[in-house]
Amino acid sequence: MEHVPVQNVAGPNLVGAGTGNPQIGPLVKPPAVTPAPQIIGARGLAKTYPNGQAVFAGVDLDIRADQRVALIGSNGAGKSTLLKCLIGLLPSSGGEITTLGERFMAAPSAAQLTRLRRQIGFVFQNHGLVGRQSVLTNVIQGKLGLPGSWRAWHQSLARQEWREEAMAVLAEVRLADKANARADQLSGGQAQRVAIARALIRRPRLLIADEPAASLDPAVGRDIMRIFSELARDHGITLVYTTHDMQHALDYSDRIVALKDGRVHFDRPTVRVSLRDMDGVFHG
Amino acid sequence: MVSLTSPPPSSRVLPPPRLPSISPLSFTVLVVVGALFIASMGQVAPSPEKLANGLPRMAELVGRMLPPNTDPGFLQRMGWRILETLQIALVGTVFGVIVSQPMGWLAARGISPLGALRHFPRALISLFRTVPDLVWALLFVSTLGLGAVAGTMTIVVDTIGFCGRFFAEAMEEADKKPQEALNAIGANRVTVLCGAILPDVMPTLINSSLFALEKAVRASVVLGLVGAGGIGQELKVAFDLFQYRNASAIILAIFAIVLAMEFLTDRLRAKFQ
């Protein structure tokens, strides 16, 4: 496995740079490169199904704040399983995970899982919207699981600030005019944008998306990925998503982690990944 | 090239038998059930002579029933009884439907917070459903006394038996994807129920509730026969006192009520589809 660390550069690189005053030249210091806070860390992570089938083993990952990470691999490579293990939704079979400061071995404790869920937004391939509810209700339901959120199960009961917040995130995904429409009357792309809004209203530190564009046509899929990528960057959210679309991974991530044969095949900044590398993941 | 002529006998593939084979056990069961049916028919089915003898008596009874009594005093009394019948049906159904929702939730596989203990509410729902409504009415008349309250309680129990099962099945078949999405963010069971399951199964719940109301109107008509209030009580009195013209008026009123209720619930069902 090839692992190239991806670091975020925090703060100004040069003191006084850009001030237009050459007199402060002697104060120039070496670049202060500080790694951004860790969001997900995994050491020797393994997963084996109860029937003995190994999904992956020896997975090491270090995902830092504000990164947009694409997890790629062919069907059955274990991308979704890895994603679920990393956030404690599935127990792992070996190794250690530290996600959003919560360290656990196989599975997080109930208290850890509650704390994790409060900081994570989810978007699923099938969007998981409640079809017979309005778009606004679906978005507000993104607040469920947060403290004092029992009123979030329907927009008519929700606090006014949540309703306004929901309208703001709907505007960000360009669906404010559909707030009153029923979710089952939306197109696939619109439904996925509502799912993104539902994830954003939680103000998550980490946004997890499992094949968010897999069931959409290519143009709509690209649109969804672009919205995802831009919103994650604008809100300072770490984005980790699975995809088997090479172009989506190349266009909408800072870093690509490729899974193949139950191992991390490569883990590099996206600028250092070629189409040939990608082809090797799926066909090599 | 593939030849379409008959293959040589050695490589011929035989088609499956025309009829499925039957095991000795299945054959024995079939024979026993057939014998039981034939033996029972001789004892309880009406013979042609019996039917022929009964027809003139039926004609005579119908003759004594006509014309139906339209005396204003009687019609007014019947009107109050019909109103009471509808009240029993409506109040009993509404309470029954309200109680059926948590009962159905507790009994639903994969959703119930009780885990394996969900078999208890399920068994209770089955008990409510399998014991006939007239038996419940007798029990409530014995414990609560004669009148409409016993009838209402009977309809409540009958509705829980009917709706509890349908509600549980509907919840089990509700779309799992929204539930998974809400579970993933840490929503508790009650909010998943209210936010994802109930909206998804609402058409089924409304349909079942309307069927229950229709069923309750029919049931509340006969509950009066055992003293549990409603128009049935008036019908029993009419037959007991040989007031056949009163009885025919009541039967026509029952027919009109049930028909009107079916029409109304059909329209409502179509609206909520």
Automatic annotation (TrEMBL), chain A:
GO MF term (any one): ATP hydrolysis activity
InterPro entries: AAA+_ATPase, ABC_transporter-like_ATP-bd, ABC_transporter-like_CS, MetN_ABC_transporter-like, P-loop_NTPase
Domain ABC transporter: 40-283
Keywords per UniProt: ATP-binding, Nucleotide-binding, Transport
Record bears the keyword Isomerase: no
PROSITE patterns xref list: ABC_TRANSPORTER_1, ABC_TRANSPORTER_2
Similarity comment: family membership: Belongs to the ABC transporter superfamily.
Protein name, per record: Phosphonate transport system ATP-binding protein
Originating organism: Ancylobacter aquaticus
Native organism taxonomy: Bacteria, Pseudomonadati, Pseudomonadota, Alphaproteobacteria, Hyphomicrobiales
TrEMBL record, chain B:
GO MF: ABC-type phosphonate transporter activity
Pfam families the UniProt entry points to: BPD_transp_1
Compartments where found: Cell membrane
Topological type in the membrane: Multi-pass membrane protein
Keyword Cell membrane: yes
InterPro entries: MetI-like, MetI-like_sf, PhnE/PtxC
CC per GO annotation: plasma membrane
Domain ABC transmembrane type-1, residue spans: 82-265
Ranges annotated as spanning the membrane: 20-41, 86-108, 134-157, 247-265
Keyword annotations: Cell membrane, Membrane, Transmembrane, Transmembrane helix, Transport
Keyword Transmembrane helix: yes
SUPFAM superfamilies assigned: MetI-like
Family label: Belongs to the binding-protein-dependent transport system permease family.
Stated name of the protein: Phosphonate transport system permease protein
Organism: Ancylobacter aquaticus
